[in-house]
Amino acid sequence: MTSLLSVKGLSSGYRQQKVLHDINLEIAHGSVTAIIGPNGHGKSTLLKTISGLLPSWAGETTFDGQAMPNGAPDRARSGLILVPQGDQLFMAMTVEENLMMGAFARKDTSAIKSDLDEVYSLFPRLLERRTQRAESLSGGERRMVGIGRGMMADGKLMMIDEPSLGLAPLIIEQIYAALGVLATGNCSIVVVEENPSRVANVASSFHLMDGGTFAWTGNAADLTNSGEILNTYLGG
Amino acid sequence: MDAILQIVITGLTLGSMYALGSVGLALTYGTMGMFNMAHGVFMTIGAYASYTAATVWGLPLPVAIAFGILAGGIVGALMHLLVVRFMLSRDDFQTTIMVATAGVAILFQDLILKQFGAYPFKQPVQIEGMFRIGNTVIAYQSIAIMAMAAVLIGAMAWLLTKTRFGLAIRATAMNQNAAKLMGVKTELTYLQVILIAGTLAAAAGILISSLASLSPGMGTNPLIRAFVICVVAGLGSVTGAGLTAIALGVMEAGIGYYFGARYGFPVMLGLVILVLIFRPAGLFGKQGVIRA
Amino acid sequence: MSRFSDLQKNLFILAGVLAVIAALPLFITQRYFLGEIVLFMIWASVAVQWNVLLGHAGVFSLGQMLFFAIGAYTVGMMGVFFDISPWLSMPVGAVVAAVASFAIGLACLRLDTAYVALLTFAIVFMVSSLISTDAECFITEGGLCTPLFGGGNGFSGFGDLGFRKLLKGKWILGNYFVVLGVLALSLMASIVVIHGRLGLAFRSLGDSRVYAAARGMNRTRFHIIAFVITAFFTGLTGAVYAAHFRFAGPSLFEFSNLVFILGMIVVGGLKSTWGPIFGAALMMVLVELAKSWGDIQNSLIGIVLIVFVLLLPKGVAGASTKLFGFLKPKRKPSA
C-alpha cells in the first residue's frame, strides 16, 4: 500500500537562507508520526513547506496518490491540514466562527454539524465559550480552538505544530489526552514536538530533525533503545 | 432651527458621499495592508464613464450609473491583475504600493485630461427639483445621494457579514496565513476586494460629480477626505470609516455654514490631529490590528 | 580601500560631481540648457533630501513639497511685501520650513507609516487649498489685489539675486552657481546624515524597531530630527527656486510635482546615496522627450513609476550594485 504523504528530496528556506536540506518523509494511512528535535532546526519550516505556506525549492511531494497542488489553499482543500504554531486564530471572530472557518471549504452541511459536536465533546470548554471572541481566550483554550478548527476540515492528514508550546503542564496533559483520542480516528497525524517524552505514547514513528535534515528515524521501540542518541541532540 | 436642519441635510449628503468614498479604501487597507493612492482616480473614472454613457452614447440614466460603477470596478481589477498582484509578498509592500498606485493615479488622471480636456463640465446624471420642510430647501438630488449611498453601503455590509464570500474577506483581513490554511484562496479574495472598492469609489465619484462638476482632478479632494476619515476611524476599520464619514460630513457642513466653506476641511484636519495625539491608532482602531 | 571611511569616500565623490557640474557652463552656453541644468539641480536637491527621509530614516512623508513651498513663499512674500533681497530671505525660508516641520513632526511622526503618509499628504493639500481659495486682499497695488499668501496666482516678479544688473546678459551663470552652492550644501548634509552617526541610528531602527527601542533609542526623536534637517534643506532649495524663477505659487503643491520627484527617487534607487541624482537627471530628460512627443509627461511619469516599482524596485542604483557585485563577486554589495 502506498503512503498517504510521500516527500522526496525536499528543500526550502527563507529568502536566501536554506533551512531544509533533502528531506525524505513517508506518512502511512492512519498513522501518528512525531517529528522531534531542538528548536530552530527546521521542524516548523518543514510543516510550513508541506502545507504550502512556504514554497519548496526542490523535491517531489505526492499526497494521497496524486501530485500535490501548489499553494496552501488548494492543499488544504485536498485534505492536508496544518494546525500552525501559535494557533493563528481569527481573533475578532467567536470560538464557533473560528471552528466553522475550519470547514470553510466543505459543502456537506450535516457532516459539518456532527463534526462540530465532536469537537465540543472532545473540548467541552469550547462549548461553554462558543460565543466568546478568540482574543478573550486563555492560551490553552486557544490551542483547543486551533486543534478543533483543524478537525473541522475533516482532512486526511493533520499536521500539528508544537501543541504544547507555551502551555502549563496541566493543560499540556489535557491537550495530549485529546490528541490521543484523535489518534484513534481515521485521520493521519503528524505532530511536531521539541520534547520526545510527550509524544512517546501517542506516536508510532519518530523523526529527529537536526540542522535541517533527519538525523535519526525509528519506531517506538527504537526510541526507547536510542535514549543516548536522543540525549546528545536534545541535551536531555 | 432652520439652520440646523439645513446643516444636517447638507452634512448627511456630504457624509454619505464621504462614506461611500472611504469604506472601499478602509476595506482594501484592512484586508491587504494596501493604501491605494489611485482610489480617487477610481472616483473620477466612474464619473466620466457615467457621463460618457449618458451624454455621448445617450443611454438611460440607470444604465449610465451602472456603467460608471462597473467601470470603476474593472479598472480596479485590472490594476490588481497587472500591478498589485506581483507586489503582495514584498517586505516593503505597504510603502512601495503607495508609490505604484500613485503612478497609476497620475497616469489615469493624465489620460482623462487628454481625452476630455481640463475644462470642467456638468454631470448629466442627476435628478432636478427640490421640496421644502418649513424654510429648508431640500434637493431631490440630496435624497437620491443618501439613498444610493445607503443602498450600496448596506449591500456591502450584508456581503461582508452575512455571506461566505464576506467570511473569506474577513478571515483574510484578520490572518492571511490562517485563511490560506482554511482553503481560502486569498489571491482571489484580494482581487474581489479591489473590485468592490473600485465600484464603491466609482459610485462615490458619480454622486460627487452630480453636485459639483466633472474635472480630471475631481478625485483628489474626496480622496484626501477619505484618507482623513480612514485615519480618524483607525486604518482598516470599515464600520468605523462609515460612521466617521457621516460625523465629519455633518461637522464640515456646520463649520462651512458658520465660518465659510473654505474652513470646513482645515478645522476637520485640525481635530483629526488632536484625536490622533490621544488615540494614535484612531477612534475604532486597535494598535494590534495594524501591521507594523 | 579601507583607508577612508564611507563618509570620506562619499565626500570625495561629491567634490568630483560638483566639479563636473561647475565645469558644464564651459561647454554649454545656451541659456535654455543652463536653465534646464539649474532646474535639474533644484529637483535633485529635493529628491536627495526626500530620499534621506523615505529611504534611510524610514519616514514616509508625502509633505516635502510643503517645505519646498514654505521656502519659496518666504522669499516671495518678503520680496513682494518688504522688498527684501533673496540673499536675506533664503536662509529665513529654510529656517521657517524647519520650524514648520518640527511642529508637523511632533503631531504626526509618532504614528505608524501609513498614517504619517496620509496625514502629511492631507496637511499639504489643506495648506494649498487654503492658499489658492484666499481672495481677501492684503495689499492692493495699481488695482492689483494680492492676498497675504498670494491667492491662486502666487507671487511673481519680485527682486532677484542681483545678477541681472551685475552680469547683464550672462545673469543666468550667477544664478547657476548660487543654485549649485545650495545643491552642494544639500548633498553634503545628506551624505553626513546617511553615512554618519544618524545614519547608523536609522539603520539600526530599520533593522529591528523593537531591539532599538529596547536599547533606549527613541524612534520618534530620530524621525523628527531627520524630518527637520531635510525640511531645512528642502526649504532652502525652495527658496533658491523662488529666487531664480522669481515665482512662488500654489502650482508648487500640484500632485504631479510630488509624483515627478517621487519618480526621481524610485528610478534612482530608494536607500541609495547617489541614486536620486541620476534619477533626477533621467526624469528631466524623459520629461523633455515627452514634451516633444505631445505633452504626455504625466502619463509617462506614471508608467515609469509603475514599471520601476514592479521590475526594478531598487532603481538604477540597485541594478548597478547588482552588476558590480556580479563583476566583483568578493565585494559585499552595499546599498
Topology:
The complex is a heterotrimer of chains A (236), B (292) and C (335).
Chain A (H helix, E strand, L loop, with lengths): L4 E10 L2 E11 L4 E5 L6 H9 L6 E6 L2 E2 L4 H6 L2 E4 L11 H8 L6 H14 L1 H5 L10 H14 L4 E5 L7 H15 L4 E6 L2 H4 L5 E6 L2 E7 H6 L1 H8 L2
Parallel strand pairs in A: 3-8, 3-9, 6-7, 7-8
Antiparallel strand pairs in A: 1-2, 1-4, 4-5, 9-10
Helix pairs in contact in A: 3-6, 4-6
Chain B lengths: L1 H31 L6 H18 L4 H22 L10 H24 L13 E4 L2 E4 H23 L1 H11 L1 H6 L4 H26 L8 H14 L4 H22 L4 H15 L14
Antiparallel strand pairs in B: 1-2
Chain C lengths: L5 H22 L3 H27 L6 H19 L3 H23 L4 H20 L4 E5 L2 E4 L7 E2 L6 H5 L3 H25 L1 H11 L1 H6 L4 H27 L1 E2 L6 H14 L6 H18 L4 H15 L3 H13 L8
Antiparallel strand pairs in C: 1-2, 3-4
Helix pairs in contact in C: 1-7, 2-7, 2-10, 2-11, 2-12, 3-4, 3-10, 4-10, 7-8, 7-10, 8-10, 11-12, 11-13, 11-14, 12-13
Written description of the protein model:
Chain A is an alpha/beta fold. In chain A, 38% of the residues lie in helices and 26% in strands. Chain A is built from ten helices and ten strands. Chain A has helices at 43-51, 72-77, 95-102, 109-122, 124-128, 139-152, 169-183, 196-199, 220-225, 227-234; strands spanning 5-14, 17-27, 32-36, 58-63, 66-67, 80-83, 157-161, 188-193, 205-210, 213-219. In chain A, helix 3 (95-102) runs parallel beside helix 6 (139-152) and helix 4 (109-122) packs antiparallel against helix 6. The longest helix of chain A is centred in the last third of the chain and has 15 residues, at 169-183. With 292 residues, chain B is an all-alpha fold. Chain B has a single domain, classed as ABC transporter involved in vitamin B12 uptake, BtuC, CATH 1.10.3470. Chain B has helices at residues 2-32, 39-56, 61-82, 93-116, 140-162, 164-174, 176-181, 186-211, 220-233, 238-259, 264-278, and strands spanning 130-133, 136-139. In chain B, strands 1-2 form a two-stranded antiparallel ribbon. Chain B is globular and about 60 Å long. The termini of chain B are far apart. Chain C has 335 residues and is mainly alpha-helical. Chain C folds into two domains: 6-253, no CATH class; 254-335, no CATH class. Chain C is globular. The two termini of chain C are 17 Å apart. The interface between B and C is large, with 45 and 42 residues.
